[in-house]
């Protein structure tokens, strides 16, 4: 069995509060994560081998154009590409579960995986940490 390679493109309006939680939950699941930060250049972390950051000085109505452009630049060569917002968390929690699902559907042109919105940290008065990503709305 060949393990499918994965890339995830993530739309975000502000780097915080969701991106640390998003990375805590998803970084182990994907081979590469590409963030598209709309209209906010503040607090952008440095690029790593696995996580890339791009800024777009426009609001979200350019999302499809940004996704298409960055897919052409950063997504080629991957077996599966995912497109999420920073507050959308896949319900899959292990690499094994994601990989077996992808392997079972590798011949399909599209696949829908369930995701859940994370509860905004302000509802927890700053008490939400990466372990709290299991507390979905």
SSE blueprint and pairings:
Layout: E1 6-12, H1 18-26, E2 32-38, E3 51-56, H2 63-75, E4 80-85, E5 88-90, H3 95-104, E6 115-117
Parallel strand pairs: 1-2, 1-4, 2-3
Antiparallel strand pairs: 5-6
Short description:
By secondary structure, the protein is an alpha/beta fold. The protein contains three helices and six strands, in the order βαββαββαβ.
Strand order of the largest sheet: 3-2-1-4
Structural classification: alpha/beta
Multimeric organization: single chain
Number of E-type strands? 6
How helix-rich are the residues, as a percent range? 10-25%
Largest sheet: 4 strands, parallel
Query: Which sequence of SSEs, written as H and E, runs from N to C?
Result: EHEEHEEHE
Molecular structure report:
The protein has helices at 18-26, 63-75, 95-104; strands at residues 6-12, 32-38, 51-56, 80-85, 88-90, 115-117. By secondary structure, the chain is of the alpha/beta class. Strands 3-2-1-4 form a 4-stranded parallel sheet, with helices on one face. α1 (18-26) links the parallel β1 (6-12) and β2. Mean pLDDT is 77; it is low at 123-137.
């Amino acid at each position: 069995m060949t393990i499918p390679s994965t890339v995830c493109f993530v739309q975000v309006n502000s780097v915080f509060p969701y991106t640390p939680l998003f990375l805590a939950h998803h970084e182990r699941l994907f081979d590469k994560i590409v963030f598209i930060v709309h209209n906010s250049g503040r607090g952008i972390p440095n690029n790593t081998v696995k996580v890339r950051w791009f800024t777009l000085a426009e609001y979200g109505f350019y999302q499809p154009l940004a996704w298409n452009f960055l897919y052409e630049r950063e997504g080629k060569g991957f077996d599966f590409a995912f497109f999420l917002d920073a507050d959308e968390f896949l319900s899959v929690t292990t690499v094994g579960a994601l990989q077996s699902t992808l392997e079972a559907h590798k011949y399909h042109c599209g696949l829908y995986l369930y995701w859940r919105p994370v509860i905004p940290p302000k509802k927890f008065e700053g008490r939400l940490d990466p372990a709290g990503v299991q507390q979905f709305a």
